[in-house]
Amino acid sequence: MKITGTTALVTGGNRGIGEGFVEELLAQDAARVYVGSRDMTEAEAVSALDPDRVVVVELDITEQVQVDAAATLANDITLLVNNAGVFHNTTLLGADDMTAMESEITVNYLGTMRMCRAFAPIIEANGGGAIVNVLSAGGIVAVPDMGGYSPSKFAMRAASDCLRAELAPKGVHVAALIVGSVETRMAEHIVGVHKEPPRAIAKAGLVAAKHSIGEHDTDSFAVGVRAQLHRDPSGLAAALAASVQQG
Ligand SMILES: NC(=O)c1ccc[n+]([C@@H]2O[C@H](COP(=O)([O-])OP(=O)(O)OC[C@H]3O[C@@H](n4cnc5c(N)ncnc54)[C@H](OP(=O)(O)O)[C@@H]3O)[C@@H](O)[C@H]2O)c1
Questions:
Q1: Which domains does the chain have, with CATH numbers?
Q2: Nearest residue by C-alpha to atom 37 in ligand 1
Q3: DSSP letter at 131?
Q4: pTM, whole model, 2 decimals?
Q5: Cα separation of 38 and 62, whole Å?
Q6: Mutate to test the pocket of ligand 1, among 186, 220, 226, 245 (most ligand atoms within 8 A of CB)
Q7: Best of 35, 160, 182, 245 to mutate for ligand 1, by most ligand atoms within 8 A of CB?
Q8: What does the pLDDT average to over 111-130?
C-alpha cells in the first residue's frame, strides 16, 4: 500500500511509539491521521502537529462502545496501527493478585483483537490496506520477570498470523512488528540497553505496511534477539530478564 494520501488510525497515539507513528505518517504525506487517546487532553500536543490532518478520537481499546464509535467516525481508513499497550512490571507469581496480568491480556491481546474485528471490514470496504500490530521481542522469546506481558504479546503474534491468512483474500495485509528497545515511558524499567527513538520504530512499521512484510524486526535490539533465539534461547531469556528492573 501507499502511505502518501492514506488515512490512518493510531491507537495510543498521544505519546511514545504511537506519537512517533503520527509524526511519521504526517511526514510521509498521509491525508488524515486519527489519533486514539484515552484522555483527549493528553493528545493536545499531537493534535497541534497539524490540526488540519490530525483528528483526535477518545479511544480506550478495551471499551467496545468506544471502539464502535471510533469505527463510525474513522470509517475512511485504509491503515490501522494497533500500538496501544501496557506493561505492568510485575512477576507472574510475585504479584499480589491477577490484576496486572489480566490488564496485559485485556489490553495487549483482547483490546487489539477488538480493534482488528471492528476495522478489518472497514479497510476491506475502502479497497484494502493494512493493519500494523505493534508487538515485541517479548512476543518471540518468553521473558521471565515480565509477568503477563510476554504471554500477551505471544498471543497477539499468533493471532496476527491467523488474521494475515484470513484477511489476505480481502486485500488487507497484517504486519506484526517485533519491537526491541525504545525510549518511552513503558521502557523506563529496562536498563543497560540502547533504546531507539520512537519515530525510528514508526518508520520501520510503515515499511512493513508499504511492502506487505508479515513479521518485521523494527530495530537492532529486536534483530539481535531473533538471532540469539536460535543460538542460545535460555541465555537470551536470562539476559532479558536481567534487564528488567522491578518496580
Ligand atoms: N518501549 C519499548 O521498548 C517497547 C518495546 C517493545 C514493544 N513495545 C510496544 O510498543 C507499544 C507502545 O508502547 P510505548 O513504548 O510507546 O509505551 P507508552 O509510552 O507507555 O505508551 C503506551 C500507549 O498506549 C496507550 N494505552 C494503554 N492502555 C490503553 C488502552 N486500554 N486503550 C487505548 N490506549 C491505551 C497509552 O495511553 P495513556 O497515555 O492514556 O496511558 C499510551 O498512549 C506497546 O504495544 C508496547 O508493548 C514497546
A1: 7-242 (3.40.50.720)
A2: 12
A3: E
A4: 0.97
A5: 10
A6: 186
A7: 182
A8: 98
